[in-house]
Write a structure and sequence with these properties.
heterodimer, A: D-Maltodextrin-Binding Protein, domain 2, D-Maltodextrin-Binding Protein, domain 2, 2 domains, nine-stranded mixed β-sheet, 16 helices, about 20% strand, B: three-stranded antiparallel β-sheet, 4 strands
Chain lengths: ~350, ~425
């Protein structure tokens, strides 16, 4: 029995001893969007291979990352958060209220959102208005705003196949969902005069809401699950990041949006309409305090990383133009503070 | 038995109604037996489907395609006195050039360099740092091929599918086939899966970080919940008066065992991380959260084990003049230990598979090296599976299943130890 007491005592000592050491932090902590995660992952791995202390990278989602990032200044709070949309004003104010009042916003590149289905399905070319008609909770029929009556693709346009509308997509908590609503649904609802005439909350109520009567299925945050369900059902469509389509070209094909299929070229040029910017945010108060933070940020925006032949591009990031990359690099080098109050 | 007796005994004079009743009762027996058997068969079939699908998708991750490259460590590129900061990128580029001696088009070499894993330079650096004598020598080395080519070799990417539906185009495949013809491609056991830490490249990703992280978390969990659980159980079983308060404590411990684990995760986040200021992602916090889960289990098992020790042993010890603590520590507890250990191992096995609370306290970080201690950021096996399941690369599909099989392997081992201990040490009175 004495042995147990000894083990317990020793372990208690060890725990308190190491707790004292942990006060200072020698590695970078990164949280944030699951969309930015694979890119940051690549930078982390390169950065570590260059002989630096391995940063700790956690995928928390854009919103969750902002909450932790804006929690305060000091070693207990992360240094960088990734975001698949710009920081909102509410998040900015929360940051400032917690003393995080000097933050650099870094635009890294673009990420395509693809709508895809099984290769055995028919080729599809949808406009944003048609996607809106298929997926919105309320649509316009004969000038009236009514609950979505469409159950089959052929009801939207007779040239479409006579198959039921089945679309797997991300849940409301996901940044991908926010991006999809903003990039597709908002544009789509402009095509309908009665909806376009609405203003403020009434308009947002129609343009933002996805239908919940069955055809649109929230499939969770895991894009691989959506990919598997599309492989099993040739009628179903899915909404997910372009990198998942790229990796699964043998079983999935893209749905063209406004006549344009997603690929590196169309997303990079900005002709494919469903592409969103990716950001990361640096806490400037931690520069010079957390070792390697500045170097890490510079590695992230080096030509070797986010340039046209860099390793982030290999992972599927759509790179910025030469001029924009210069701007981004200058922003990082100067640690320029951005101010969300002004816009 | 009953049926055969009924048939072999000479027919007695019974009414039709009695015979009918008897038949019905036998039929009911057979139905009950059938339903029981059907339930077991269904359960086994479901388990078989689960394991079968895991093995079917996961077995490919236990092997990895390798390519043999010839490496010359040029002393101009790598300094013998400071091998860590050598230019290994150039060394690998040189090795790729040797791989395609007839190629002089830089574009072909660029494609060729994509066949060799991106981590080749790190593998080389680690080798040379470990053995600086390699500087200036030329040797051949097997390195993993990058994931698309690995998937091609394993037949996941099919060569005969149309070019625009393949991750690799015809030129890339024919370049790779020249290597295959020269016998430089070999598929062998993928030890990296167990001994490498996580990586963004499937061909390099492994579970060692997660295994070490899980080990530390379980160690902390054991060190907290085992002594505390036993002490609490001894008090409740041997000292506590039977009154309303101890009843309430008892009911609450039983309830605690049934609380969903995510609740403990939220508690850990709010108390251990935000209030106590312990670091996120650390196995210490993970172990503390898991110990909240295993503690009630251990208390319940320990109490049962203490209760199973016959009163005669306590009375005999008391009778020869032992004091209460001598009775408990010298006689009752040692006799109860087998039962306690079995319960503890099963509780720990449960904790090993727990995911939800670990996600909340940040033990799902991407880390390229195993943790060095309980305060350092770590992942655990189930959270590693969670991360891999969410990765786009094809190679991670098989690796996710393989990681689940590894986790199941650990669980089966722990349960086997529990069964062994019970069989060897258990005493009957």
């Amino acid at each position: 029995m004495n042995k147990f007491v000894a083990v317990a005592a020793v372990s208690a000592l060890a725990i308190t001893a190491s707790a004292g050491v942990a006060a200072a932090r020698d590695q970078i902590r990164i949280v944030g969007s699951s969309t930015v995660f694979p890119y940051t992952q690549a930078v982390v791995e390169e950065f570590t291979n260059m002989g630096n202390a391995a940063p700790v990278l956690e995928s928390t989602g854009t919103g969750g990352g902002m909450r932790i990032f804006c929690g305060g200044v000091g070693v207990d709070h992360p240094d960088i958060t990734g975001a698949s949309r710009p920081m909102t004003q509410g998040e900015y104010e929360n940051c400032v209220a917690n003393g995080v009042d000097n933050v650099t916003e870094v635009l890294v590149g673009y990420d395509g959102l693809s709508i895809a289905h099984s290769v055995s399905g028919p080729d599809l070319d949808l406009t944003e208005a048609q996607i809106f008609q298929a997926l919105a909770a309320q649509v316009e029929v004969d000038g009236e705003i009514v609950p979505n009556p469409y159950q089959n693709w052929s009801e939207i346009d007779p040239s479409f196949p006579d198959s039921p509308i089945v679309v797997f997509g991300p849940p409301p908590t996901s940044g991908t969902r926010d991006a999809f609503v903003e990039l597709v649904m908002h544009d789509g609802c402009k095509a309908f005069p009665a909806i376009d005439a609405l203003e403020g909350d009434a308009r947002r109520d129609v343009c933002d809401r996805m239908r919940t009567d069955g055809p649109f299925i929230e499939a969770g945050e895991n894009d691989n699950l959506i990919v598997q369900r599309l492989q099993a059902d040739s009628n179903a469509l899915g909404i997910f990041g372009y990198s998942f389509l790229y990796e699964n070209q043998d079983t999935l094909k893209a749905v063209a949006v406004n006549g344009i299929e997603p690929n590196e070229q169309t997303i990079g040029e900005g002709t494919y309409p469903v592409a969103r910017p990716l950001f990361f945010y640096i806490k400037n108060a931690h520069r010079g305090v957390i070792p390697g933070l500045q170097e890490f940020a510079e590695e992230y925006v080096s030509e070797n990383s986010f340039g046209p032949n860099g390793y982030l591009h290999e992972r599927g990031l759509i790179t910025l133009s030469d001029a924009d990359r210069e701007t981004t690099r200058a922003t990082v080098a100067e640690g320029r503070h951005f101010d969300r109050h002004t816009n | 038995m009953a049926v055969s007796t009924a048939q072999t005994t000479p027919p007695r004079q019974t009414s039709d109604r009695a015979a009918q009743l008897r038949r019905r009762r036998y039929a009911a027996d057979r139905r009950l037996k059938f339903f029981g058997l059907a339930a077991i068969v269904t359960a086994i079939a479901l388990l078989g489907i689960l394991l079968g699908s895991l093995i079917l998708t996961g077995y490919q991750a236990f092997v990895q395609t390798h390519v043999t490259i010839e490496v010359a460590i040029d002393p101009e590129l790598v300094d013998r006195d400071n091998p860590a900061s050598g230019n290994y990128r150039a060394v690998v580029a040189d090795a790729v050039q040797r791989l395609f001696p007839e190629a002089d088009d830089p574009a072909v070499l660029q494609e060729g360099s994509r066949i060799v894993t991106n981590g080749a330079q790190v593998i080389l650096r680690n080798m040379v740092v470990g053995n600086p004598g390699l500087v200036g020598t030329t040797f051949s080395l097997q390195v993993p091929v990058s994931d698309p080519y690995d998937q091609l070799t394993k037949g996941v990417i099919q060569r005969d599918s149309p070019e625009n539906r393949r991750r690799l185009n015809d030129a890339q495949i024919s370049l790779y086939e020249t290597l295959e013809e020269r016998g430089l491609i070999e598929t062998r056991a993928n030890w990296a899966l167990l001994f490498n830490a996580d990586s963004r490249f499937p061909e390099l990703a492994g579970l060692s970080g997660a295994i070490v992280g899980s080990f530390y978390a379980l160690l902390v969990c054991f060190l907290i919940s085992f002594p505390m659980g036993i002490a609490a159980a001894i008090y409740l079983e041997e000292f506590a008066p039977k009154n309303r308060w101890t009843d309430i404590v008892e009911v609450n411990i039983n309830n605690l065992a049934a609380v969903p684990s995510i609740v403990f995760g939220l508690l850990g986040l709010a108390v251990f991380i935000q209030l106590f200021g312990l670091p996120r992602s650390a196995p210490l916090v993970g172990g503390m959260v898991l110990s909240l889960m295993t503690l009630p289990t251990i208390i319940i098992v320990t109490r049962a084990a203490l209760k199973a020790v016959p009163p005669s042993i306590r009375e005999a010890a008391l009778g020869v003049g032992a004091s209460k603590h001598e009775v408990i520590l010298h006689h009752v507890l040692p006799l109860a230990i087998p039962g306690i250990l079995t319960g503890t191992i099963i509780g720990l096995a449960q904790a090993l598979g727990e995911t939800a609370p670990l996600l909340l306290i940040g033990m799902n970080a991407f880390l390229t090296s195993p943790p060095g201690g309980i305060m350092e950021p770590a992942t655990a096996l189930p959270t590693q599976i969670f991360i891999w399941a969410d990765s786009p690369e094809r190679g991670f599909v098989a690796r996710t299943s393989a990681a689940i099989l590894v986790l199941l392997g650990f669980l089966i081992t722990m349960n086997a130890i529990a069964i062994y201990l019970r069989a060897r040490l258990e005493r009957r009175w």
